[in-house]
Amino acid sequence: MAKLYFRYGSMNCGKSTAIIQVAYNYEEKGFKVLLIKSSLDTKGDNKIVNRNNLSRQVDVLLPPNMPVSPYIKDDIAAILVDEAQFLSPNQVDELYSISKFKNIPVICYGLRCDFTMKGFPGATRLLEIADSIEELKNICKCGRKATQNLRLINNIPTFEGNQVVIDGTDQVTYESVCGKCYLEIKNKSKEGVQ
Ligand SMILES: [Zn+2]
Fold first, then answer.
1. 83 a catalytic residue
2. Distances (CA, A) of 68 to 35, 76, 84, 93, 98
3. Does the structure show a pLDDT above 90 at 186?
4. Which domains are assigned to the chain?
5. Is it the case that residue 80 has pLDDT exceeding 60?
């Protein structure tokens, strides 16, 4: 019986590099993979791009709440999902069911929580039902393990706003930080407002 895997980590922890590598490993041995990415992610449209500018085309740009099953062909050896935090919980349930009834391993890569430390619905569902959960490690600038995602708008840390950024004129970036640095920056930003 195949498993549903969730490999989570903070921003820039190497998820894209890992998924490109896993796809390559399957294909090198002659197996076919189905590479899915949520269409909520606008970063690289129909491509997965890692920090070294290695890129790879995805097979399916999946809108929220659309079923995955129509894309599953018999010759697929594994399903790989990038930006899995943007899946809807019912898509996660469907992927779980595919792993069990079609016996295809499903490997999801994504964030656990957003810049306000709240879980993404898709990630929360994955944490509830995945057969295997693995953390991809990243380092904070202070040397501790980075677990949180700091959102910067025009280089200023921000703690309010939508979970998913709507494209605009502001420059939105993220920094992976440890829990302590996150709270310290948050407290400092509160003091600044007063
Ligand atoms: Zn830190």
1. yes
2. 11, 13, 13, 10, 9
3. yes
4. 4-135 (3.40.50.300), 148-193 (no CATH)
5. yes
Structure tokens at 45: 């449209």
Q: How far is the CA of 24 from the centre of ligand 1 (A)?
A: 34
pLDDT tens digits along 107-129: 999 999 999 999 999 999 999 99
* Sheet containing strand 172-177, strands side by side: 156-158, 148-153, 172-177
Distance of CA 12 from the midpoint of ligand 1 (Å):
15
- C-alpha distance from residue 174 to each of 31, 46, 65 (Å): 35, 21, 26
Beta strand spans in 63-167 (E): 76-82, 106-110, 132-135, 148-153, 156-158
14-48 per-position pLDDT tens digit:
888 999 999 999 999 999 999 999 888 665 578 88
Catalytic residue, candidates 28, 83, 94, 184: 83
Model-level pTM? 0.92
pLDDT at 41: 67
